[in-house]
Design a protein that fits this description.
The structure holds two protein chains of two kinds. By secondary structure, chain A is mainly beta. In chain A, 6% of the residues lie in helices and 50% in strands. Helix content of chain B is 62%, strand content 2%. In chain B, helix 3 runs antiparallel to helix 7. The N terminus of chain B is likely disordered. Classes of the chains: A mainly beta, B mainly alpha.
Chain lengths: 356, 324
């Protein structure tokens, strides 16, 4: 009991500290989770030149995270099935809160701040049915659970807050076993993109792709300033069938699918792991760690070119181009056709790089 | 599924093995392939009939087979349209029959042919055109004859482009870790890249080159073997194995006795197989011999991992194997 009281006391102490901004955390531009050579895991704050602003240990493998818009707070989500999320004070290097999903819910790896940072929204699924919910947490009230709204689909993954305050959710469509991520409904899965107003009426407006693409799991999202969203997909159907792995959703809801040339499509191995817009918003790119490949498209979904990099997955805007991270510890800048190494760390960068 | 490996720690500079693998194996291989593909195209221009062309076609396969599983740099996309296989949906045969029926002008123009579906280009296309009884009886001057000339010319162009592309890839591999090398950030990455090709080639041979015609017990699928019409099914497996071990010898610091012993076992299993096209798989003895070869190749993978990969700290990929 002494231990537990001590832990609560330190939480209270932390909560009463004045909030610090990102400058106090070394002014990182990006966050990334990593696996360390000794088998442990960590969260890294990265500057735009690839140098490290901070590094904090994690208790287990992380997936993605999100940064608070003003305070130096990062929320890091465990890899699925997610039993915890950590709120990290990146300036002081301490754990501010450990969030556990309510009974019957599991975190699905992604989250975002709403209402200027007053609310945290977390992508979650019901452990029994995989039905999606957006968990809502009151940030100023010490990350108290406020409630939840349905996401309008099964197996939600990434989510993005739009300028309107609405949230776009990628409902991946895959029902999973609550303990081991075994996929249960591949034959009948129906992914969708859903638009909801979690702090308002909460009713989801759902868009599905054509029925022949019902096995293309919509998993990751990238938002451009004008509201255009790039969505990355993972094909669960016949591997010999080539399908688009990138779609674009215009702010009026119109969907365009991006189709690369045949050989390019095949080399992605049916898998897009991350998606990002270039810093200037002119290009959108997807990565495939399975194919060790990055594909660039224009905003109309026309194929522009590729780059190769083993184990590449993380991608984010950097300057006018892109930042890439990979499982070999590489951080690279991608500008047009050109790849330039920034740094190589003795870590394996995890699936995503989050822009602050 | 191709293997993917990630390198952890260990920063011993090992460009020696990489340089040898590139200079002693890969570069001479792509040059020899470009030459035999050129010979094939010239032979086709001279006499396009199936019987006349077959020796040059088989010689080109012989040159390609050791390179078939190396999927680095220009070979990543290049291999797909040189030897697209397996063609699960029969797209190659469908496209070729369609071209012939329509006498499509794309089939007469090697430049336009580069836009045709990968399944109807390169070796698989020639395997059908020269080996399928319905297709191979064409006469000199027919559309099919000119299509064969086009496919051979397109293959020669691809082989030339591959050899040229490999000059830059060889430079990138052998200067791994140098300032400004964006492809390989350290010598370890170049080692890992080549080692991965060797292992995934063996895995592809065991799982797909042998696994696909074996099918399920009781339902062999001999016509799912690679290039069975040309009798190349077993020679392609053998070439893939020799290439993988050849690369491993270059990469390793010293002798690799367990790998050599495992290779001997593979050779014995290969020698026991009667039909190099695997068309006798309905016979339980023939089936067993193929299964034994499959097991021996898997044992070779284990030996290579233990002797070549593990000492360098190579382990399965962090992101490519995980997914989310």
């Amino acid at each position: 009991m002494a231990t537990r009281r001590g832990f609560l006391a330190s939480l209270l102490a932390a909560a009463s500290l004045p909030s610090l901004g990102w400058a106090e955390a070394g002014s990182p531009s990006h966050l990334a989770c990593a696996g360390d050579p000794d088998g442990t895991f960590s969260l890294h704050g990265l500057r735009s030149d690839g140098t490290e602003a901070f590094r904090l240990p994690l208790p287990a493998r992380g997936h993605a995270g999100c940064g608070h818009p003003t305070e130096a707070l990062a929320v890091v989500f465990a890899r699925r099935p997610g039993t915890f999320a950590l709120v990290l004070d990146c300036a002081r290097g301490t754990v501010r809160r450990r969030l556990s999903p309510p009974e019957g819910r599991a975190f699905n790896g992604h989250g975002t701040f709403l209402a200027g940072g007053a609310v945290l929204a977390t992508s979650e699924q019901a452990t029994g049915t995989s039905e999606g919910v957006l968990g809502l947490w009151d940030v100023e009230g010490g990350f108290r659970r406020m409630g939840e709204v349905p996401t309008g689909g099964v197996g939600p993954h990434d989510l993005k807050r739009l300028e309107s305050g609405q949230v776009l959710v990628a409902n991946g469509g895959i029902a999973t076993d609550p303990t081991d991520r075994t996929k249960l409904n591949i034959a009948t899965m129906r992914p969708n993109l859903s638009l909801l107003d979690p702090l308002g009426d909460g009713v989801a407006e759902v868009t599905e792709l054509s029925p022949d693409l019902h096995q293309a799991s919509i998993r990751h999202l990238a938002l451009r300033a004008d509201g255009t969203v790039g969505f990355a997909m993972q094909w669960e159907g016949d591997p010999d069938v080539l399908v688009p792995l990138l779609g674009l959703r215009a702010s009026d809801g119109t969907i365009t699918l991006a189709q690369p040339p045949e050989a390019e499509a095949r080399l992605m191995q049916g898998y897009a792991g991350s998606v990002a817009w270039s810093g200037d918003g002119i290009e959108v790119a997807i990565t495939s760690p399975k194919g060790g490949r990055i594909q660039r498209f224009d905003a109309q979904g026309r194929f522009l070119g590729h780059a190769s990099r083993p184990e590449v997955c993380g991608i984010a805007p950097l300057g006018t181009g892109f930042l890439l991270s990979d499982g070999l510890g590489g951080l690279l800048a991608l500008q047009g056709d050109e790849v330039r190494p920034l740094a190589r760390a003795e870590v394996a960068w995890d699936n995503h790089v989050v822009t602050l | 599924m191709r293997l993917a490996l990630a390198l952890t720690l260990l920063a011993t500079p090992a460009l020696a093995g990489v340089e040898e693998a590139v200079n002693a194996w890969i570069l001479p291989g792509v040059a020899a392939f470009a030459e035999s593909a050129g010979t094939l195209a010239r032979s086709a221009a001279g006499d396009c009939t199936a019987d006349a062309l077959r020796p040059a076609y088989l010689a080109a396969w012989e040159a390609w087979a050791p390179l078939a599983d190396i999927r680095l740099g220009p070979s990543e996309a290049g291999a797909l349209s040189i030897a697209y296989w397996p063609d699960e949906r029969g797209a190659g045969a469908r496209t070729l029959r369609g071209l012939i029926a329509a006498e499509d002008p794309a089939g007469l123009d090697p430049v336009a042919y580069a836009e045709v579906s990968a399944a109807a280009r390169g070796f698989p296309a020639l395997d059908l055109l020269l080996g399928d009884p319905d297709l191979s009886g064409y006469s000199g001057g027919s559309y099919a004859c000119r299509l064969v000339q086009t496919v051979a010319a397109d293959l020669a162009v691809q082989a030339e482009a591959l050899a040229e592309g490999w000059q830059a890839e060889a430079q990138a591999l052998t200067t791994a870790g140098a300032e400004g090398n964006a492809e390989y950030l350290s010598p370890d990455e170049a080692f890992r890249a080549i080692y991965t090709q060797a292992l995934s080639g063996l895995e592809f041979s065991a799982d797909t080159r042998l696994g696909r015609p074996l099918g399920e017990p009781g339902t062999p699928r001999p016509t799912r073997a690679e290039a069975w019409r040309s009798g190349r099914s077993l020679p392609n497996v053998a070439a893939s194995v020799e290439s993988a071990v050849g690369l491993a010898r270059e990469l390793a610091d010293g002798p690799i006795p367990a790998t050599e012993a495992a290779l001997d076992q593979v050779h014995h299993a290969e020698a026991a197989i009667d039909d190099p096209s695997f068309q006798d798989l309905a016979d339980p003895t023939a089936r067993l011999k193929l299964e034994i070869l499959q097991q021996r190749i898997r044992a070779l993978i284990d030996a290579m991992e233990a002797e070549v990969g593990n000492p360098r700290g190579l382990q399965p990929g962090f992101n490519s194997r995980d997914g989310d």
